Amino acid sequence: MANSYRRILIIKTGYSEFLDRGISTTVSLGDVLICTSLLHLYKGDHVTWVTSSQAKGLLKSNPLIQKLIIFGSAALEELSEQTFDVLINLEKDIGISASLSRIRAKKCYGFYFSDKTHSIETRKRSTRYLLAGQENHRDINQNALEILYETVDKKWSGQGLVLGRKRNSKVKYDFGFNYAVGSKWPTKAWPDEHWKSLEKLLEPKYSVSWQKGHTHLQSYINWIDSCRIIVTSDSLGQAIGSALGKKVITLYGPTNFQRMQNVPGVQVVRSSLTCPHMPCYLPFCRNQRFCMDLISPEKVANLCQMAVR
């Protein structure tokens, strides 16, 4: 009797972000986790996911991934000997995309290397602005999951992120302050004095924990799981919090808030600054007024207290 499931191959290493046009040597774990929402479409199928060694810890226990492979020449050799029903490439790296031409698939989605233009192309016109040299980030007016589902010709209907971990019922803190940001976009950071002011506004009525374990992935996940509500910058913490079913309050300034608008569990807080460059995605602010400064601790405290109810 023939197998009734489909063979699905997903390429997502995190070296390029799905909604950022650049390529980086730093793996975006948050972007990898956001892309796990697609797995809801392939329940009952056999899913092979190709990722980076850095992202392996996020995916290794995922119940909807049957085979996890670290990208490399050995992986390509193994994959080239198989035929897949669906191949989804969510990487814009030229080397990765070009190497996929060796893999046989009945249906392909996402990005690919064009021999004609010698550049990365996309199979969907609606996602051309995700490529370098296309429209500005401010033209993105859908959330990440809506665009992700469009990439595979589906409509997003509220499916969340999938993390291979059961929720911890032992919540220790009312609020977790996910204050640290990565080196790629230091402008995402909310000023330290604002975080301290927020703590004063919430205590002693509520318990607060400052970010822990962010240099070790599993410890970091454990810390987020120990908090009832996460207050965070636009970073990995909001994706993990959403995947764990937490309430997440995310502070947005230099990046596009619409990427996470209406994503399950996430409430976005926008800077009130009127700036012609927003969202700029710049590592350093070019203006006299910094957008993140204008998100007041009082506003965030009010949202926190509403979230507790």
Structure description:
This protein is of the alpha/beta class and 309 residues long. It has two domains: 7-151, Rossmann fold (3-Layer(aba) Sandwich), CATH 3.40.50.2000; 173-308, Glycogen Phosphorylase B (Rossmann fold). It is built from nine helices and eleven strands. α1 (29-35) runs parallel beside α8 (236-243) and α6 crosses α9. The chain is globular. The chain starts with 6 loop residues before the first strand and ends with a helix.
Mean pLDDT: 89
Classify the secondary structure makeup into a structural class: alpha/beta
**CATH H-level homologous superfamily name of the largest domain:** Glycogen Phosphorylase B
CATH class of the largest domain: Alpha Beta
Roughly how many Å apart are the termini?
54 Å
Structural key phrases:
single chain; 309 residues; alpha/beta; Rossmann fold; 6-stranded mixed beta sheet; 5-stranded parallel beta sheet; 9 helices; 23% helix; 21% strand; globular
Lay out the secondary structure.
Layout: E1 7-11, H1 29-35, E2 46-51, H2 56-59, E3 67-70, H3 73-79, E4 83-89, H4 94-99, E5 104-114, E6 119-122, H5 144-151, E7 173-178, H6 192-202, E8 208-210, H7 217-225, E9 227-233, H8 236-243, E10 247-252, E11 266-270, H9 297-308
Parallel strand pairs: 1-2, 1-4, 2-3, 4-5, 7-8, 7-9, 9-10, 10-11
Antiparallel strand pairs: 5-6
Summarize the structure.
The chain is an alpha/beta fold. The protein has nine helices and eleven strands.
